[in-house]
Amino acid sequence: MRLSTRPVAALIAALALTAGLSITGTPASARSDDAPAASEASDVSIAADTYTWKNARIDGGGFVPGIVFNRSEKNLAYARTDIGGAYRWDQSGKEWKPLLDWIDWDRWGWTGVVSLASDTADPDNVYAAVGTYTNSWDPTNGAVLRSSDRGASWKATTLPFKLGGNMPGRGMGERLAVDPNKNSVLYLGAPSGNGLWRSTDSGATWSEVTAFPNPGDYQADPADTSGYGNDNQGIVWVTFDERSGTAGSATQDIYVGVADKENTVYRSTDGGATWSRIAGQPTGYLAHKGVLDSGTGHLYLTLSDTGGPYDGAKGRIWRYDTATGAWQDVSPVAEADTYYGFSGLSVDRQDPGTLMATAYSSWWPDTQIFRSTDSGATWTQAWDYSGYPNRSNRYTLDVSSVPWLSWGANPAPPETAPKLGWMTESLEIDPFDSDRMMYGTGATVFGTENLTAWDSGSPFTITPMVKGLEETAVNDLASPPSGAPLLSALGDIGGFRHTDLDEVPELMYTSPNLDSTTSLDFAEASPDTVVRVGNADEAPHIGFSTDNGANWFQGSEPSGVTGGGTVAAAADGSGFVWSPEGAGVHHTTGYGNSWTASTGIPAGATVESDRKNPEKFYGFKAGTFYVSTDGGASFTAAATGLPAEGNVRFKALPGTEGDIWFAGGSAGGTYGLWRSTDSGATFTRFTGVEQADSVGFGKAAAGASYPTVFVSAKIGGVRGIFRSTDTGATWTRINDDAHQWAWTGAAITGDPRVYGRVYVSTNGRGIQVGESSDSDGGGTDPGTDPGTDPGTDPPGDATCSVTYTVTNQWSGGFQADVKVTNTGSTAYDGWRLGWTFPGGQRIGQMWNATHQQDGAKVTASNVAWNGTVAPGSSAGFGFTGSSTGDNAEPTAFTVDGEACTVE
């Protein structure tokens, strides 16, 4: 039931809400009191194999609307995200630690964190108000989570209404606050007309503050009937004036911000018993933040004409003198000069009168950050124009630790790459260190540790402070049998090619840049051939790679395409089938120079390829499976009776024609896991699998004749990530209750080269990588990956020789020619040359070969016309690159992993 009206909320308010969830035990572990009991069926092992879990590092990737520092303990800070949970700062490693990975499948909405509060009186206490949507999209009500060990374990109280961590206005706040003088008292501002709520027992029970007069009235889009844009954004922040109380006694003066442009600030002077609108306040705006500087007695408001976080065309900053009741507009620029709203408000607790704010909705040319050291009388800003379009920056921005934040952009002034950010709704000065400041953006957390250099006119340094905070939403995953171990399709930032799971990739996919990649695939027998599709404002929506995703080129597309949909590559890379949004299923040969409509398959079908037969493709929609045996030109309906609705994922087994695993369905309907061994003509259901949502394959166990199968599923009454090494006869759960990551139904794949390794998608916690402690399977495949440092001493019977010649050189750059000679007795049928640069060189452009570079390691591969090299013959290519120092030449090379002599 959706509680969206004030009368319903008022009816429930009379009842004390008891805690319905106990979350205790090992760090970050969780178990609901009413969770279903584990089945003792013999075909499932609930005792998980010992797996270790980590993220494939991306660092950031989503909106960070809130950063909270504890005001009584140094270096204790938290961050909240809109869909990816909450984090605690670890000063020793200067990284964030996830706190809500225990959230399970059924309560996936609790990964949206609408507010955080850290207890000043007892720093061990932390609270989180959770829930993702206030409309029907989220099936569960919101909750307030409480922890007495800094988020290591939690208890929760489910509320009689929903909360919206991913709703419009989510950057305003904080909605949740702990009384700094009497920490058993907490307040929570609710959306959807549900008013102001209070707990007097440290968050265990809650009731509505019926005396509070205004539940808010602002809607981002009143014409929206979905419950999203037309939701009343409600009560948006609570601020205590700690000077009006003493330890153990409730604070008397409390300020509350309301999403109401005419009545945006209320105050109580009697500990919350009565409330009144503060006279003289600004109107026509919403107060995104309300922060009180206890050193000066000033309450500051950052205001915008909308609730954000994307919009906002006008804004102001006002100051309220709590001693005199006087209001003053202290905005840094004239109202007519704003094209943005203000947010991201913070005061320096070490230096009263110093405050900062952000122009959160200034998308072009950049966000702006403002700073005042005299209570808002005068301001300076992070950058100014020095003769338009040139900029003079007070800062330097170093993103070398997260290089993709440049987005591969080369904008014209006044834009810069990388940018200071966008959606900058949170900015906090460390209450113990005036030099440290952090702020959240739509993609990362930036910060500085020499902030006060701003005031002396010296540049201060901004860097990403986001390590450990992984917030991407994953749409698809692929692990090819050679090349990079992991390719990803991500929402918002496109996706990455991971050559090292523990390193941040240099750049997301480009050419084309897609807002979100919805699907990707590689040719099973030719894994250098990769295709990806996704969403963008305009064409193209598709890209191709011939070097395992290292470099890309744009493809053409059928008319009418509006979104990515799904795509499949033929097993040998000879063609592709694409089912985009806005157009029907199409097929092509080559790299999509022209597309032809497929017949016999409905628009919007999900498509995949057979991993053995390059002419065979599969499709599915609304309970019917489809098969093509002519490269996707025509499809024929095959099996029926499969799930007609719900999330569906299916994959064909590598190396075997016609072996297909199918997962999907919906609660209350057909739901489970099926397998076909006749190319989709018939499917057999696995009776022990109650529900399944994604399926993938990995390296077979030692002695096994069939690859390892991984599923995100419900087996034996337990939701989790499961593994089978015997073709689905038995299953072992490989995650545990501390590692659940809410919804994991988009994609899963094993690694074909490392037994037990699995890659799991999440919706906001990035790519989870599981590594098994079980050595069964013999470890990784032998051999040298392309680009591996080959050593210096080739074997005596080396079948290749290499000549590397620098033909031209200039300051910072050079040109080189490379010749590869076949000194063996067998012709090369394609070749890959690997080497390691000794001096940090970077390849810019290459001809007569394609290349990929990971740090110093380079792999150059043949193109179509020089892949065949007869014994005694040679192939050559050239490139230009950048260099530093003396441009030392590489001294060792490999061809297909075999060391070569160097001429």
Walk me through what this model shows:
By secondary structure, this protein is an all-beta fold. Strands 1-11-10-9-8 form a 5-stranded antiparallel sheet, with no helix packed on it. It is globular, with a radius of gyration of 29 Å.
- Major beta sheet, strand line-up: 1-11-10-9-8
Tell me, briefly, the overall form: globular
Q: What is the mean predicted local confidence, pLDDT?
A: 91
Number of helices: 2
Work out the number of β strands.
Answer: 72
Radius of gyration: 29 Å
Beta-strand percentage range: 35-45%
Q: What helical percentage do the residues reach?
A: under 10%
Brief rundown of the structure:
With 903 residues, this protein is an all-beta fold.
Index terms:
five-stranded mixed β-sheet; five-stranded antiparallel β-sheet; 903 residues; mainly beta; 72 strands
Question: Topology of this protein?
Answer:
Layout: H1 6-13, E1 21-23, E2 44-45, E3 51-55, E4 66-69, E5 77-80, E6 86-90, E7 95-98, E8 113-118, E9 126-130, E10 143-147, E11 154-158, E12 176-178, E13 186-189, E14 196-199, E15 207-208, E16 235-240, E17 254-258, E18 265-268, E19 276-277, E20 286-293, E21 298-304, E22 315-321, E23 327-329, E24 343-347, E25 355-359, E26 368-372, E27 380-381, E28 383-385, E29 391-393, E30 395-397, E31 426-429, E32 437-440, E33 445-448, H2 453-456, E34 460-464, E35 474-478, E36 486-490, E37 497-498, E38 516-523, E39 526-535, E40 542-545, E41 553-554, E42 563-569, E43 575-581, E44 586-589, E45 596-597, E46 606-609, E47 617-621, E48 624-628, E49 636-637, E50 647-652, E51 660-665, E52 671-676, E53 684-685, E54 689-698, E55 708-715, E56 718-724, E57 731-733, E58 748-750, E59 758-760, E60 768-772, E61 800-810, E62 813-822, E63 828-829, E64 832-836, E65 842-847, E66 850-854, E67 857-861, E68 868-869, E69 874-882, E70 893-895, E71 898-899, E72 901-902
Parallel strand pairs: 2-57, 30-34, 61-72
Antiparallel strand pairs: 1-11, 3-60, 4-5, 5-6, 6-7, 8-9, 9-10, 10-11, 12-13, 13-14, 14-15, 16-17, 17-18, 18-19, 20-21, 21-22, 22-23, 24-25, 25-26, 26-27, 28-29, 31-32, 32-33, 33-34, 35-36, 36-37, 38-39, 39-40, 40-41, 42-43, 43-44, 44-45, 46-47, 47-48, 48-49, 50-51, 51-52, 52-53, 54-55, 55-56, ...
